[in-house]
Amino acid sequence: MAEPRTQTPAASENPGSATRARKAGGKAGQKTDKPGSSRAVARTGATSARKTATKPRAKAAAAAPTSTPPQTAPRDMSKAEVHQFLTDLSRAWPDAQTELHYTTPFTLLVAVVLSAQATDASVNRVTPALFAAAPTPQAMAALGDEQVGQLIRTIGLWRNKAKNVVALSHQLLAEHGGQIPHTREELEKLAGVGRKTANVVLNVAFNQPTVPVDTHVFRLANRSGLGRGRTVEAVEKKLEARIPLPMVRDSHHWLILQGRYVCKARKPECWRCAAQQSCLFPDKTPLPRPKAPRVAL
Ligand code: SF4
Q1: Cα(169)–Cα(254) distance, integer angstroms
Q2: Which domains are seen in the chain, by residue range?
Q3: What is the number of the ligand 1 atom nearest to the C-alpha of 276?
Q4: Cα-to-centroid distance, 71 and ligand 1 (Å)
Q5: What's the CA gap between 281 and 157, in Å, rounded?
Q6: How much is the pTM?
Q7: pLDDT tens sequence across 249-258
Q8: Which of 77, 241, 287, 293 has the most CB atoms around it within 10 Å of its CB?
């Protein structure tokens, strides 16, 4: 994992997301990289809103004079501000790259499909054995659902993902001569591959200036003012238009690492954020007070 210069990342991304994903389940054949989709974002917001509304404590808080801090910047950044914000992130994450382990475009594609609603760390634990057994679409197709499932059963939605990985291997053999296609449209036709997965493969494997928007990038873009939008597609469109071309490829990694380890969902760690000066979020989290030492009585 890339080490930040002025920030200290946590050990891994929120493991609770994988647990929630397992509980949520998944249908066979369903595309699984949905946490960043507009429907998923909207559903998450609606669910949390319902939960909040039924909690007595939340009612009391609503009656209190303090208002809920806004979770988005009041405006979009200017071009100069975008450049400064990304420059700050580039200094924080100088060696940023994907945290998924892969060796070829095919193993990258499989790793990204497996990482939907699971942590990169959990995927990296299963892929060494999986890629040793099946490093190519031919070998993956020959391995079949059952054996692939046995090799990846510690990650969320493993049954569905095993079927998708085998199915996409068959598709690659039948329709692309065993090669990974270079366009988003063709990638999105593969089993288990949605827009975000396609964008990651195009960016990382083929150096294309795509901007994959996952839940971390969506949150960070809205909070900071880098590119605000109500849906993943809206944010992606804005970021594509606003991020300077030479910065697009690397910004994918800067934004994911920043959102995952610093600009966290529940409480952004603004006090140690390298982009604190250039971020437009009005309610930055201050440095936590040190806890008072316990006094033995
Ligand atoms: S200052 Fe805070 S809200 Fe802004 S990017 Fe940094 S962590 Fe996120």
Answers
A1: 31
A2: 105-206 (1.10.340.30)
A3: 1
A4: 11
A5: 35
A6: 0.77
A7: 999 999 999 9
A8: 77
